[in-house]
Structures are given as structure tokens and as C-alpha cells.
Specification:
By secondary structure, this protein is mainly beta. The chain has one domain: 3-layer Sandwich (Rieske Iron-sulfur Protein), CATH 2.102.10.10. It has one helix and ten strands. The radius of gyration is 13 Å and the shape is globular.
């Protein structure tokens, strides 16, 4: 069973924007799409380490600000001709509150 912790509010993140949460796993970027869907990924592009939280959110994808690699926010997979992926994390909303699954984080840390 998941253990959820509150990490912020929907209004903390602008539409098509991101904010970061610092965790024992490092910085996690929390993205909000234009349709208010929420996604969380590690905040580091595997290509050159660019901060994905500073990238451009379009649809359910984000473009790295350093070298334009595009990642699916749903799966973390690189899109197009690029190869690689970023780790994704489970989120849920309760009204305005954003919650993250800490059990999933713990299992990832144990890997």
C-alpha cells in the first residue's frame, strides 16, 4: 500500500511549468501541463545533466533546456531519435494538494 506525503499545491506550479522537490534521491521535478495533469521525474537529463525543471513543457513532454532532448512525462522515455530515459515518480491530487508516493521512492533508493 502506498504512503503519500504532501509536497505542495497545484497553484504552486504554473500551467506548463515545473517546481522541484528535494528528496533523499535528489531533486525531483514536478510538472504541470496545460490541462492540469501532474507528472514527476528526476530533474536531470541523462544526456548532459540539464535541469529538466527549466525545460519547456508541451503536451505530456518536456524539452531539456540544454540540448533539446524531449522526454515523455508519462514514461520518462526519450522521444524521437534520442535514446535514454529519466526515472518517473507517482503523484496524485487531492483537491488542490499534490501528493507523492514515498514508498516508491524508498524502493527506488534500495535499487
Amino acid at each position: 500500500m502506498a504512503s503519500w506525503i504532501e509536497i505542495g499545491n497545484l497553484s504552486d506550479i504554473p500551467p506548463r511549468g515545473a517546481r522541484c522537490v528535494t528528496t533523499p534521491l535528489g531533486r525531483i521535478a514536478v510538472f504541470r501541463t496545460a490541462t492540469d495533469d501532474l507528472y514527476a521525474t528526476e530533474d536531470r537529463c541523462p544526456h548532459k545533466g540539464g535541469p529538466l525543471s527549466q525545460g519547456i513543457v508541451h503536451g505530456a513532454a518536456v524539452t531539456c533546456p540544454l540540448h533539446n532532448w524531449v522526454f515523455s512525462l508519462e514514461t520518462g522515455a526519450a522521444l524521437g531519435a534520442d535514446e535514454g530515459s529519466v526515472r518517473t515518480f507517482a503523484l496524485k491530487r487531492e483537491g488542490e494538494k499534490i501528493l507523492m508516493d514515498v514508498d516508491l521512492m524508498a524502493s527506488v533508493a534500495a535499487d
